Amino acid sequence: AKERGRNQYQFFNAEMRDQVRNRTELEQALRLALQNNEFELYYQPIINTRNGKVESVESLVRWSHPERGIVSPADFIPMAEETGLIQPLGLWVFEHACQQMQAWCELGLTELSVAINISSSQRHLGFNAAAAQALITKTGVNPNKLIIEITESMFLDGSEEAITWLNELKSLGVMLAIDDFGTGYSSLSYLKRFPIDKLKIDRAFVSDLPDDEDDASLVKAIIAMSHSMGLTLVAEGVENYEQLDYLKGLECDLIQGYLYSKPVPADQLPDVIRALEDP
Ligand code: C2E
Ligand code: CA
Ligand code: CA
Ligand code: CA
């Protein structure tokens, strides 16, 4: 047993060493990627169920790596959060999404809004209303066209600081959305204390609709209660017509998912919108 214990220990050590090496390499690569401008924003349409129009788009960051190609945010956002690189990356994302929104507005897409993901670690690293205002001023974007998406876990914090932070952002004129709703354990009544406009129901609750009875009743309850609180609902990850029809039946306001479109580079978006709105 002793022998085995030692081997395990050594194995663990070697694995840890590799992890550290990979992490250091990834961190270095992320720093370089920021310097070399290797990040790009893709945009995914969000469709209004009442009129079929593309009401907004969500900006989703991609790392276009010279050798590895397009890298998914799931593979680098957690590391960016741990190392604090999410702060410069987040500012880059915010500025570029605003700049792109302003460019689309000038192209005639005047009704469109853009959703920007802000991770909760950005708050602790100094992203705030003043930083957002500086970029809004710099790009000339109308703040009414911006939706800031924050995950539910951030609200669970519930501290005075978090509430003040949200209220100050909201006072810029932007909309606020809770992302991945349902994955935390907050009640809707608790959320009433926050200046929220939209709820995004997490894909995990959408993928097995309408057959999964637990998911179906949960989604039904979320939609009914949020409507009574005046919130707009977005269902994420809608991939088929069964899900779409079910959600429409519950009067879910907005739909996002591969059924309509995957996230696309900015230059493809006007064509994607045209195709969705005049099929
Ligand atoms: P999220 O904010 O929940 O974004 C939605 C994710 O679901 C996106 O993954 C999107 O491509 C994917 N998705 C949309 N429709 C469907 C569908 O019908 N089926 C499936 N299977 N997936 C769908 P993506 O782009 O890989 O982003 C993953 C996560 O990375 C995001 O989840 C968000 O948490 C984070 N992220 C992305 N961009 C940013 C950013 O600019 N800043 C921050 N802080 N986080 C970001
Ligand atoms: Ca999001
Ligand atoms: Ca989400
Ligand atoms: Ca998510």
Automatic annotation (TrEMBL):
Q: Which domain of life is it from?
A: Bacteria
Give residue ranges for domain EAL: 23-277
What name does the UniProt record give this protein? cyclic-guanylate-specific phosphodiesterase
Q: Which organism is it from?
A: Pontibacterium sinense
Top-down, what is the taxonomic lineage of the species of origin? Bacteria, Pseudomonadati, Pseudomonadota, Gammaproteobacteria, Oceanospirillales
